[in-house]
Amino acid sequence: MQRISICRSCQVEGAEARGNRLAEAVAEELARDPELAGRVEVGLVDCMIVCKQPVSVSVRARGKEAYLFADVDPEAQASEIVAFARLYDESADGAITDARPCGDLRFKLLGRIPADPPEPV
């Protein structure tokens, strides 16, 4: 099961929490693809400590690389997150070699975390 976690704490000065809006928008986009929706969970989490670049989003699944995005626009990028989720779902190890179908989301990537712990030195 793939998990998309969205920071509930991400805010812009004077605005309501944007993470809630993004989670709702992603859930609505996923509902349009019931097959994918059955393999993806969307949830809100507390601060991911990327406060200067709200909204932050992580994507992970057991045995796959994890991804962390920041500065995600709740009004414009829900469909791009779902496009990424589709590519991620299709990848055996989570490695995405061509992220162009994800639009501008690919430029919001902060890091990719290996699935397995590193080998000892």
How would you describe this protein?
Strands 2-1-3-4-5 form a five-stranded mixed sheet, covered by helices on one side. Helix content is 26%, strand content 21%. The chain starts with a strand and ends in an 8-residue tail after the last strand. The model has no long low-confidence stretch (mean pLDDT 91). It is of the alpha+beta class and 121 residues long.
Q: Tell how many strands the DSSP assignment holds.
A: 5
* Whole-angstrom Rg: 14 Å
The CATH architecture name reads: 3-Layer(aba) Sandwich
**N-to-C span:** 32 Å
The CATH topology: Glutaredoxin
What portion of residues belong to β-strands?
15-25%
How would you classify the helix and strand content by structural class? alpha+beta
- The strand line-up of the biggest sheet is 2-1-3-4-5
At the fourth level of CATH, the homologous superfamily is Glutaredoxin
**Proportion of residues in helical segments:** 25-40%
Uncertain runs are: none
Order of helices and strands: EHHEEEHE
Number of helices: 3
Mean pLDDT: 91
Number of domains: 1
Instruction: Name the overall outline.
Output: globular
Largest sheet: number of strands, sense, barrel closure: 5 strands, mixed
Give the C-level CATH assignment: Alpha Beta
